[in-house]
Automatic annotation (TrEMBL):
Molecular-function GO term, any one: RNA binding
PPR repeats: 250-284, 351-385, 452-486, 553-587, 654-688, 755-789, 856-890, 957-991, 992-1026, 1095-1129
Keyword Transcription regulation carried by entry: no
Organism (species): Adiantum capillus-veneris
Taxonomy, superkingdom: Eukaryota
Keywords, alphabetical: Repeat
Name of this chain's protein: Pentatricopeptide repeat-containing protein
PROSITE patterns noted in UniProt: PPR
Any one GO BP annotation for this protein: RNA modification
Transmembrane segments: none
Pfam family for this entry, one: PPR_3
Length: 1267
């Protein structure tokens, strides 16, 4: 098939044949040349058949390259070409008749003959296809044009305008400017209309510049279009400027200006122009009057509307249905329903618009019953409601709170097929949201095919009103995800939602968007921002916003006062109240309620009475919310008498008021009074709500009245409220705190939709009753339910970790705390310190403590308790001092830990100082503190002071008695200890293992082994089972008495005992000690080997046993092993030195002593020195012994000088014995035995001298005899 060429058409008289030169393998050369143009084959190939096919048919195929033998065919083709004028006539006819089918055939014929490349025809092809309604073909023809005339541009623009493709029109205008094509005045008007439709004033300004360039600004219809464009694009000043430049503004000009101003919300200016127009002699047209009525209705300009009504009557338009409906709408919007009804009744016919205007008027003015009557009458008259009528009916139901009627109208909406209507859908969402039926509202919203900010705002507002901020924010996110723009109402609802869930991050983002939208000065938005910031505790931002307000109204002041009050900033709230009064801002009931809440926070009853007086003066006391606030204020200020007085004076006492009084008594620990008010409330037939039940259950917890709690539970079940989450959580809490954990678990298991509070109540119960494993198991179940733990729950979990010493689990919870952003909460930080301290990770505890932003008393207490529990006594006392320096008063726990620390280091003076401080703080009556003081004095050996503290105790429990008995036993007052043991039983206190063990241990220490075993028998007779302490005492008694068989028998009992699992090491050490003292080192070694732990005490005990048996090789072998293991201590050296002393290993002992001095420095104590003195004394090195005494860290004691004195007798050193005796005489521990020893030394010395004299006499006698 031959190719269609794009040829510039030339008449035959202007064409001439040209020579054709064809080269083998080369491109085609020139085929023909006209007088004005030429066409080459290479160009032909490139433009061949651009118009391939449309939706209905194909026009041609790809072209083939011409060859020289086709030149003759070209000449024949030129002869057969149809007349262009004939084709043009056919094209014009197709355009006029809009005959698309014939237009396509003509186009095909033109393509067959190559005439579509003829410029004039090709441009008219565009117009033809546009008029025939086929824009795709028109676009293709337009794109093929090499030279586009103004007619093609105009046709395309008109075609796009008819199809409302306004953006494409403006793109064509840009292309026209690029191609230097100037639109006609009519085209410019179309372009301006497109800008108006799109509200693109920037494009409109460019077109305005084109108009000026072409001098069309004086053309009236162009000027009118410019006025209309600027006015409707929101540039009224520019519209007015153009209008003023018009030479002769006509009625159209005026109408454009009035309509534009009216649409932009400048109704007053629009009405002013209307008056100015009439003053210029122009009588308004129907459209002008229509615009005027719309403006009057928008601003409620009833008088202006009545004047226009007069003009309508004068013009004879009162029977015009469109004008009449607009007049009816104006009166309705101006609130004159009587006139609206009159216009409605006078209309020749009432269509759906008339009925809807009347119905909408009644609905907007909250004449709900009249609106619904109108809605029903409309249907009776055979007029089917449209979308607006349904909207008005739904709004009337909304105003009346008539849920049932609203649901019936919803059913009609579905029957009439209006569910997909945007207006109806939005009204349904709004109605259901305000009814609180948010699930139904959400369903309607999801079913809407088109959703913008209006229905979303209604739903967000509904969630906000119900305090469901999380759902509100979720809706905002979904709304933004759908691309819906945020308006002031959206911002207000969204900010309220952010405030409710304290989402400051999203709140600040919304604030940024508010600024970008330029609506930060909107009073509703600014108040919502203040609300959001106060709820998020960002008071600096809230104050900056509040202070930047040009006018601070009642709402903004109330928002600030309420924000301060809600977060406990009472003083600032009162300052805001004072500022409000000084600025003359009127206070309403809400303001005064907020003021009362502030007084309640500050517990300022005096200021509260002032507010009470103000309320009475303003007459607000009759409002229930105000009365409740007054009672609540007096309750929280502790003035229950005044609260009850106000309560009795109120005429209306609703359930909320009763709840306030019940809760008030509970909060002040008056659970009994609360239960009395509950009984009275029931007698007055006031129905209990969930708050009442919660308050009553809390009263039960306060009283510990389980039976009352069970009765309330039964009543809750009877009222079908057992599934109520708040009540269920309180029931769990009640059972948990009363120790009924199984019942609490049952309530928990049957509670639907349980939340994190439910888990917190249950876990708290388990932790309080030391069921830490169960508590931690709850955390895993909580994660399975995809609930985020609260700060309180995490604290409870940390308490459980501390109780179990589960450090790794505690670290996991610490990581969760960081993830949830709760690490800055003071009580969380205190709990972390406590957990790390209890787990023995004291460095981590101290690090966490140091990093706390606020180190409160709880954090100090946790750290002090941790150091105390893990034996860091010095740090315990240091942190107690630092706590006091930081301004915190230690509590009972701090004093308890500090007293124990004093006991451990023997700090008697510090302990007595703490006792004085405890008395000043009034904590001596605390049983735990009192018991610790008894224990402290007893262990200091100050048994008289211990007895005094004991006698002052209000309650003497088993701990108190046991501490005193242990004290007497430790002081060797066995008889008194035993008397206390009997006395405590007389007082009704059953002795525990500690008391029995103390007496047994004291007897075993004093070698009264038989008595110790007798006490053991009495203990068993009274049903007290022995614990590890009992057996330790028994083993010591057996060891002291070398009762090997008895010890072995008790050992076999211990093997069957399961209550010593945590004290196995102590028991093992006691066994090794017993067997060692009994001389059975085989059994001692077996006991040692059975315990794999590398405890230094156990090693030292075994070494002492071998040393006692003088097993030197084994002792030194053990010592070498201990050194390798890093287990040696000063006690270890004491055992080895003792062995060296008894074995006479002087050199070995000296080396060990020097090594110990180097390794332990200040750890050398009297016993080590005494042992070395004994070693040197036994070896006769008395001067070296005295030298060691000089090295002692303190004055040598009785044992040291006694050892020297004994050595002096053994070695006959009378001179040194005098020095030792003099030192012993200066000590309080001086005993008569020293005199005996000294006299023996002198006797030995005299005997020695006598022996020497006798020897000399014998020698002299012998010599004399020889002589």
């Amino acid at each position: 098939m031959c190719c269609i060429f794009q040829l510039n058409y030339l008449p035959s008289e202007h064409m001439e044949c040209v020579s054709v030169s064809l080269w083998q393998g080369s491109s085609p050369s020139t085929l023909m040349r006209g007088s004005n143009s030429q066409l080459r084959c290479d160009r032909i190939a490139s433009v061949s058949c651009r118009f391939q096919e449309d939706a209905t048919e194909s026009y041609c195929s790809n072209c083939d390259t011409w060859h020289s033998n086709e030149a003759a065919d070209l000449l024949d083709w030129m002869v057969k070409v149809p007349d262009v004028n004939d084709i043009m006539s056919i094209v014009q006819k197709c355009r006029k008749e809009k005959d698309l089918s014939r237009a396509k055939r003509v186009h095909l014929q033109m393509c067959d003959h190559g005439l579509e490349a003829q410029n004039v025809l090709a441009n008219h092809l565009v117009t033809m296809f546009v008029c025939c309604g086929d824009m795709p073909l028109a676009q293709q023809a337009f794109q093929r044009l090499d030279e586009r005339t103004e007619i093609a541009w105009t046709s395309m623009i008109q075609g796009f305008y008819e199809r409302e493709e306004f953006l494409l029109i403006l793109e064509l205008f840009e292309a026209m400017q690029v191609n230097c094509v100037h639109p006609s005045s009519f085209t410019l008007v179309t372009l301006l209309k497109s800008c108006t439709k799109l509200r693109k004033s920037d494009k409109g300004k460019k077109i305005h510049a084109e108009i000026i360039q072409q001098g069309f600004e004086t053309v009236s219809f162009v000027g009118n279009s410019l006025v209309d464009m600027y006015a409707k694009c929101g540039l009224p000043m520019e519209a007015r400027d153009v209008f003023d430049e018009l030479r002769d503004p006509d009625i159209v000009s005026w109408t454009a200006l009035i309509s534009g101003y009216s649409e932009q919300g400048l109704e007053e200016e629009a009405l002013s122009f209307l008056e100015e127009m009439k003053g210029k002699g122009f009588f308004p047209s129907a459209i002008t009057l229509f615009c005027g009525l719309k403006a009057c209705g928008s601003i409620g300009a009833l008088q202006n509307g009545q004047e226009i009504h007069t003009d309508i009557v004068y013009a004879g338009l009162e029977n015009n249905l469109s004008v009449g409906n607009t007049l009816l709408d104006m009166y309705a919007k101006c609130g004159s329903m009587h006139e609206a009804q009159r216009v409605f009744d006078q209309l020749p016919t009432n269509d759906v618009v008339s009925w809807t205007a009347l119905l909408l008027g009644y609905s907007e003015l909250e004449f709900g019953n009249e609106a619904l009557e109108c809605f029903e009458q409309m249907k009776v008259e055979g007029v089917f409601p449209d979308a607006i009528a349904f909207v008005s009916g739904l709004k009337a139901c909304n105003g009346l709170g008539d849920t049932r009627r609203g649901q019936l109208i919803h059913m009609e909406v579905a029957e009439e097929g209006f569910e997909s209507s945007y207006l109806v859908g939005s009204a349904l969402v709004d109605m259901y949201a305000k009814f609180g039926l948010l699930a139904e509202a959400h369903d309607v919203l999801r079913a809407m095919p088109v959703r913008d900010s209006v229905p979303w705002n209604a739903l967000i507002g509904g969630y906000g009103e119900q305090g469901r901020g999380a759902q509100a924010l979720s809706c905002v996110q979904a709304m933004q995800h759908e691309g819906c723009s945020l308006n002031p109402i959206t911002f207000v609802c969204s900010l309220k939602g952010c405030g409710m869930v304290s989402d400051s991050e999203n709140g600040q983002r919304l604030h940024d968007k508010v600024i970008k939208h330029g609506i930060e000065r909107n009073s509703y938005v600014s108040n919502a921002l203040i609300y959001m910031y106060t709820r998020c505790r960002m008071f600096i931002e809230a104050e900056n916003l509040f202070n930047s307000l040009v006018v601070r109204d009642t709402i903004s002041c109330n928002t600030m006062i309420a924000g301060y009050a809600d977060h406990g900033y009472g003083e600032k709230a009162l300052a805001c109240w004072q500022q409000m009064q000084s600025e003359g801002v009127t206070a309403n009931a809400i303001t005064l309620v907020c003021g009362l809440q502030t007084c309640a926070i500050l517990e300022n009853v005096k200021k509260g009475r002032e507010f009470h007086t103000n309320i009475v003066k303003k007459g607000f006391q009759g409002e229930s919310i105000v009365g409740n606030a007054i009672v609540d204020m007096y309750v929280k200020c502790g003035s229950l008498t005044e609260a009850c007085k106000v309560f009795e004076s109120l005429l209306i006492r609703d359930v909320a008021l009763w709840n306030t009084l019940i809760f008030g008594h509970v909060e002040h620990g008056l659970g009994g009074e609360a239960m009395k008010y509950l009984e009275r409330m029931q007698q007055e037939d006031v129905c209990m709500d969930e708050i009442t039940y919660v308050g009553s259950l809390k009263a039960v917890i306060d009283l510990g009245a389980l039976n009352e709690g069970l009765k309330l539970h039964a009543q809750i079940v009877n009222d079908n409220l057992e599934t109520n989450l708040m009540i269920g959580n309180t029931l769990i809490d009640m059972y948990a705190k009363l120790g009924m954990l199984a019942e609490g678990q049952d309530v928990f298991d049957t509670l639907p939709g349980r939340d994190v509070i439910s888990w917190s109540a249950l876990v708290s119960g388990y932790v309080e009753h030391n069921l830490y494993d169960t508590a931690l198991a709850c955390l895993e179940n909580l994660e399975c339910e995809e609930l985020s733990p609260t700060a309180l729950l995490l604290v409870r979990m940390l308490n459980a970790c501390g109780g179990l010493k589960a450090i790794f689990k505690g670290q996991d919870i610490n990581r969760q705390i960081i993830i949830f952003g709760l690490e800055k909460e003071s009580f969380i930080g205190s709990a972390l310190v406590d957990m790390y301290a209890k787990c023995g990770w004291l460095l981590e505890a101290e690090k966490t403590f140091t990093m706390l932003s606020e180190q409160d008393a709880a954090a100090w207490t946790g750290l002090i308790a941790g150091y105390s529990e893990h034996g860091s006594v010095i740090q315990t006392l240091q942190y107690l001092d630092r706590m006091e320096q930081a301004g915190f008063t230690p509590d009972a726990v701090c004093f308890l830990c500090s007293v124990k620390a004093c006991v451990r280091i023997g700090a008697q003076d510090k302990g007595q100082e703490l006792h004085a401080q405890i008395i000043r703080e009034g904590l001596e009556i605390n049983p735990y503190v009192g018991n610790s003081l008894v224990d402290m004095y007893a262990k200091f050996g100050l048994i008289v002071e211990a007895q005094d503290v004991f006698d002052e105790l209000e309650t003497r429990d088993v701990i108190s008695w046991s501490s005193l008995i242990v004290g007497y036993a430790d002081c060797g007052l066995i008889e008194t200890a035993f008397q206390c043991l009997e006395q405590m039983q007389v007082k009704g206190v059953t002795p525990n293992e500690v008391a029995w063990n103390a007496v047994m241990l004291a007897l075993s220490e004093t070698q009264d082994n038989e008595d110790a075993l007798s006490i053991y028998a009495q203990m068993l007779e009274r049903g007290i089972l022995p614990d590890f302490g009992t057996y330790v005492s028994i083993f010591r008694a057996c060891g002291n008495s070398a009762a090997l068989k008895a010890g072995q028998r008790f050992h076999s009992q211990v093997c069957n005992l399961h209550t010593i699992d945590g004290n196995g090491l102590i028991m093992t050490t006691a066994l090794i000690d017993m067997y060692g003292k009994c001389g059975s080192m085989v059994d001692a070694q077996q006991a040692f080997d059975a315990d794999p732990s590398g405890d230094i005490v156990k090693w030292n005990t075994l070494m002492s046993g071998y040393a006692r048996q003088e097993k030197r090789k084994i002792v030194f072998t053990l010592w070498k092993h201990m050194r390798k293991m890093g287990l040696q201590s000063e006690v270890t050296y004491l055992s080895i030195l003792s062995l060296c002393s008894h074995a006479g290993l002087v050199v070995k002992g000296q080396i060990l002593f020097e090594t110990m001095n180097q390794e332990y420095e200040n750890a050398v104590i009297f016993k080590h020195c005494n042992c070395m003195v004994d070693l040197m004394g036994r070896a006769g090195q008395l001067e070296e012994a005295v030298h060691i005494l000089d090295m002692m860290p303190a004055h040598p004691d009785r044992v040291a000088w006694g050892t020297v004195l004994g050595a002096c007798r053994n070695w006959g050193n009378t001179q040194l014995s005098v020095q030792a005796f003099d030192n012993l005489s200066g000590l309080e521990e001086y005993e008569s035995s020293v005199l005996t020893l000294m006299s023996n030394i002198y006797a030995d010395s005299l005997f020695s001298k006598e022996t020497e004299n006798n020897g000399a006499n014998e020698k002299q006698f012998y010599l004399k005899g020889i002589g």
